[in-house]
Design brief:
GO terms for molecular function: mRNA 3'-UTR binding; mRNA regulatory element binding translation repressor activity; ribosome binding; translation factor activity, RNA binding. By secondary structure, this protein is an alpha+beta fold. It has 6 helices and 15 strands. The chain has helices at residues 74-81, 94-97, 114-123, 182-193, 221-230, 288-294, and strands at 59-66, 87-90, 106-111, 125-127, 130-135, 143-151, 156-158, 170-174, 196-203, 210-218, 232-235, 246-252, 275-277, 284-286, 305-307. The strands form 3 sheets. The protein has a 6-stranded antiparallel sheet with strand order 2-3-1-6-5-4, with helices on one face. Strands 7-9-10-8-12-11 form a 6-stranded antiparallel sheet. It binds zinc ion (2 copies). Residues 277, 279, 282, 295, 300, 303 line the site of one zinc ion (ZN).
């Protein structure tokens, strides 16, 4: 469901301006010094053997189209794109706004088959990193629109596959622009808090399109704590990936299958955790007994638990 506004082009629905600024130039507010991201080493050029099969890019079946002519309606959009395969057209609050025209000059194409997206991408003209396609409306013929497919390879970023993700160093990030790839989220978080070893963009299970949230695992616990302490960070508009200032929220990522951190230290075996304490002085998983024990102290009695719904265990 599209419940939130999408990062789009400027108000008149025109295609976003092309800016050379790369993501590393995203200015982060909250007066935090932003270190220059280390320059990425250029990938060594390898001669590709003709026998190596070409890697086929996989896509979400949902595609953003921006900069539509103001008088193109749903039927017009469908007829512009149906040569690639069956589709429906959607935009935020479509059912409520009762309009046949996408009100902000952008819409989503929901194709029945992923193959259609591949074909659409092939038919587009690439301008820098943008894809352009042309549509016609009653008043404008042959208008360039921006096509923004979501590549499934952008869902995950892994620094080192041999290092397992540590739940106690993982944060949940909400309010992200849905244009950011996992690698870009990792890059932002690394610059802000320290090395990120994993980033995963949450996508909806059916269309596999980003939901605007992600999980990010750091290499070091200090980075995790620092990120949670900050809680909110503003990604400044850069015109390309972040078309308006976005306030991003960072919280502990709470896993539902962890054992109590306190029993673990007693050597008597660890019980399944039913609570997580998000207070910065705790940030730990607890079973009921340990929660009560550890929060009996008057100075931390006020901590409020996050309940964990365990799928596989019952309340003890
Ligand atoms: Zn315990
Ligand atoms: Zn606590």
């Amino acid at each position: 469901m599209e419940g939130e506004s999408e990062d789009v082009s400027n108000k008149d629905g025109a295609v976003e301006d092309t800016l050379e600024e790369k993501l590393c130039k995203l200015i982060v507010s909250d007066d935090q010094p932003v270190e220059e991201a280390p320059a990425e080493e250029p990938a060594p050029e390898e001669s590709v053997s003709p026998s190596v099969p070409e890697v086929v890019e996989r896509y979400s079946r949902k595609v953003f189209v921006g900069g539509l002519p103001p008088d193109i309606d749903e039927d017009g959009i469908i007829s512009s794109f149906q040569r690639f395969g069956p589709l429906i057209v959607d935009w935020p609050y479509k059912a409520q706004c009762r309009s046949y025209f996408p009100p902000k000059g952008y819409a989503f194409l929901l194709f029945e088959n992923e193959k259609s997206v591949e074909e659409l991408v092939k038919a587009c003209v690439r301008d820098d990193e943008r894809l352009q396609f042309w549509v016609s409306s009653p008043s404008i013929s042959h208008k360039a629109v921006q096509i923004r497919p979501w590549k499934l390879s952008d869902n995950d970023y892994v620094l080192d596959r041999t290092v397992p993700v540590d739940p106690r160093k993982t944060v949940f990030v909400g309010g992200l622009p849905r244009t950011l790839s996992a690698a870009e989220v990792a890059q932002i978080m690394t610059r802000l808090y320290g090395t990120v070893c994993y980033a995963g963009i949450d996508t909806d299970p059916e269309l596999r399109y980003p939901k605007g949230t992600a999980s990010v695992a750091f290499s070091h616990r200090d980075s995790y704590i620092e990120a949670i302490k900050t809680r909110y960070v503003t990604l400044r508009q850069d015109g390309r990936k972040c078309t308006s200032d976005k306030r991003v929220e960072i919280k502990p990522y709470i896993w539902d299958d962890q054992n109590c951190d306190n029993c673990q230290t007693t050597g008597l075996g660890s019980k399944p955790a039913h609570f997580f304490c998000s207070n910065i002085s705790c940030l730990r998983y607890y079973c009921l007994d340990c929660w009560l024990l550890m929060h009996a102290r008057p100075d931390i009695k006020f901590h409020s638990p996050d309940y964990i719904r365990r799928m596989s265990t019952r309340w003890s």
